């Protein structure tokens, strides 16, 4: 809610909705979650559901880096330098990303915990993340592993179409728009991301298996990993997630 709006000017229903949301959230247990899974495994479908159900904040490291750069925070200024180098093939350092997560966790919306998506991608990143959380007396509660066969992913991904400005996504087979090629809400054209082709998918999957499977092993040793059957329909995956987190 914008701070410039006086409370008395807000519609009662908005105030009540927010109060009810906060009351509901206050009784929820804290949860710090990592979502792991190859592209197309359904993390993007489940994370908003988990976020609302458990009152968590969603920390997507790419978005956070961009936001920190835009806000010109001290870390953002460092990140901007790093990202301009990154375009020359250097990567943003793990410490910087962990610092930005650390900063983001202090926001009120992250009071009950967070969902991390797209990080950690390597064991070194996982160790640095754990170190930072330890300093705050916290730890990762669950790593949700969206396990799925590579062949199923290909069908899923190559049928994906996106409405760029809202991020709404459709699938030609599983969730088609009412009118082919057009967003249901705005009527604007849908695009297919250049990543959503079979060739790109193959190289992304190879990278995923190589880098991220050690991360799953790392958390499995700590007993934090929950295997999900990500090939199931979204509603069934949601039910699995709720069972794991209850």
Give the key terms:
AMP kinase activity, Rossmann fold, alpha/beta, globular, adenylate kinase, Adenylat/UMP-CMP_kin, 7 strands, five-stranded parallel beta sheet, transferase, two-stranded antiparallel sheet, 9 helices, 246 residues, P-loop_NTPase
CATH topology of the domain at 32-149 and 225-241: Rossmann fold
Strand content bin = 5-15%
Q: How much helix is in the residues?
A: 40-55%
Average of the residue pLDDT scores: 88
Distance between the termini: 30 Å
Specify the oligomeric state.
single chain
**What is the gyration radius calculated from CA atoms?**
19 Å
Number of strands: 7
Largest sheet entry: 5 strands, parallel
**How does the overall form come out from the CA principal axes?**
globular
- By DSSP (H or I, 4+ residues per run), the number of helices equals 9
CATH homologous superfamily title of the domain at 32-149 and 225-241: P-loop containing nucleotide triphosphate hydrolases
CATH hierarchy class name of the domain at 32-149 and 225-241: Alpha Beta
Strand numbers in spatial order across the main sheet: 2-3-1-4-7
Helical/strand content category:
alpha/beta
Secondary-structure element order, N to C: HEHEHHHEHEHEEHEH
Q: Unreliable runs, pLDDT <50, ≥5 residues?
A: none
Q: Mind telling me which CATH architecture of the domain at 32-149 and 225-241 this is?
A: 3-Layer(aba) Sandwich
InterPro entries: Adenyl_kin_sub (IPR006259), Adenylat/UMP-CMP_kin (IPR000850), Adenylat_kinase_CS (IPR033690), Adenylate_kinase_lid-dom (IPR007862), P-loop_NTPase (IPR027417)
EC number: 2.7.4.3
Domain Adenylate kinase active site lid: 160-195
Keywords: Kinase, Nucleotide-binding, Transferase
